[in-house]
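User: Here's a chain of 276 residues. Predict its fold as tokens.
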Amino acid sequence: MRMRPSALLRPLIALLLAACSAGGDVKRPIPTLFVPATQPAHRLVVMLPGRGDDLDSLARRGIAQIIRDQWPDADVVLTGLTMPFYRQGRAAQRLHREVLRPARARHYNQVWLAGISLGGLGALMYDRAYPGEVDGMLLISPYLGDKALYREIQAAGGLARWQPGPEQAFTPETYQRELWRYIRHWSTDPARAKSVWVAYGDKERFRDRIALLAAQLPPGHAFELPGHHNWTLWKPAARTLLEHARLAPVPSTQVAPGNGSDICPSSKAKGCGWVR
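Assistant: Prediction complete.
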């Protein structure tokens, strides 16, 4: 079914801060940049940009060097998975087919997915759609939806008491509820919770929602740092997460390739690329 223009614009309104979203050509493959490890590579980190960034800005910001400084045995793949790919409705599926599935063919010991802001949301969407395909996630200031649903969860007495209702297809209207349903399940999936790390700023606009996610993680997996929703915070946040996750044992969650929904519209599909 063709979405009305207003339905496609709603994702931008909710995420709008001060700058325009980065562009991208969804008719071409997801742009990537491979940055090799400085030591024999045993793991891979795939990096997803925030709303205002693209592949070029990730490279300019030096995030690959930060990753390799902390994890010298890690190859890094920077991606240009920008807002147009999410609006297309197949961000998770394309990330799987074009980036993560080929990466698995290189037989790394571990494959990690990292994301900033919108990219943090993208990492969660991917893990929901393809559980077990990545061994760990590093979430920096992840965008987790609007205030209204957060208030609903708080009014219910917290995530454990919240009743999300029947499971629905992942659409622009339902993705926030389905995302929090997925996070709620971490309480019964300790292996997944133990392989997630999150960092965010004490002056973040979305701090309350990130703190709700952080409460689902084991001690030592969540860090509130001084700062706002910008690169002044995100660089030290990345260093903090990499430092603490570097030596932590990661539960084995890998499943056979091809898990998850490759086609988005099915009502039974576990993940699509929508973002409000």
